[in-house]
């Protein structure tokens, strides 16, 4: 016959086993849930990591592009600066040659040829305004007045204006009314030549690949 103590012991074992089984189920369920949460969190971290990496890659590429653009701009500005320096040097050399030119014999021929070309273009005039450097007036006034007379104009209609040093040499002729003006100054001729010099300079630079 089973005693009460034995029944209680057996009951306790059964109850304990039920509790143990239930606890194991709950622990297992909890572990599975935690595992699922951990996996979900892991995937989330991976996605975030990918986005961060992608974002970093984009930022790196953007920075590289910015640095490259900046470098190209600096090179371009430096190149333009060097070209301008070269052009200025060439123009300065031309100006210096022009200043030397006014002191040689060929200058007289140059001066007279330009003045005669201007006279051939002039219509009937009531008077002439001639802008000329003092040195050239002393050298060419007699020639100027004779050339004017040969064209049927009176030397008395000539009004002389002293030219500035910026002219370098040459002559500027206009009518009294100011409606006609012929600029044959050396400074004007140099300015007209500037575009030609620039064009030739760029052609030469292209030959050595400077404009690539």
UniProtKB/TrEMBL annotation:
InterPro entries: ATPase_E_C, ATPase_V1_Esu
Keywords: Coiled coil, Ion transport, Transport
Gene3D superfamilies: ATP synthase, E subunit, C-terminal
Coiled-coil annotated spans: 13-47
Keyword field contains Ion transport: yes
Signal peptide: none
Pfam families: vATP-synt_E
Stated family: Belongs to the V-ATPase E subunit family.
Protein name, per record: V-type ATP synthase subunit E
Lineage: Bacteria, Bacillati, Bacillota, Clostridia, Lachnospirales
């Amino acid at each position: 016959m089973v005693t009460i103590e034995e029944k209680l012991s057996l009951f306790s074992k059964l109850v304990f086993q039920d509790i143990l089984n239930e606890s194991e189920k709950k622990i297992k369920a909890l572990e599975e849930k935690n595992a699922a949460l951990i996996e979900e969190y892991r995937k989330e971290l991976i996605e975030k990591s990918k986005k961060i990496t992608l974002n970093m890659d984009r930022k790196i590429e953007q920075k590289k592009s910015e640095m490259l653009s900046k470098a190209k701009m600096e090179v371009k500005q430096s190149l333009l600066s060097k070209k301008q320096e070269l052009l200025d040097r060439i123009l300065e050399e031309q100006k210096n040659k022009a200043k030397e030119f006014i002191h040689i014999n060929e200058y007289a021929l140059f001066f007279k040829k330009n003045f005669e070309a201007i006279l051939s273009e002039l219509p009937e005039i009531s008077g002439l305004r001639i802008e000329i450097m003092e040195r050239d007036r002393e050298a060419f006034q007699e020639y100027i007045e004779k050339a004017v007379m040969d064209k049927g104009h009176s030397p008395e209609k000539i009004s002389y204006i002293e030219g500035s040093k910026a002219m370098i040499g040459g002559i500027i002729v206009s009518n009294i009314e100011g409606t006609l003006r012929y600029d044959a100054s050396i400074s004007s001729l140099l300015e007209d030549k500037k575009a030609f010099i620039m064009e030739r300079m760029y052609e030469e630079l292209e030959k050595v690949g400077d404009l690539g």
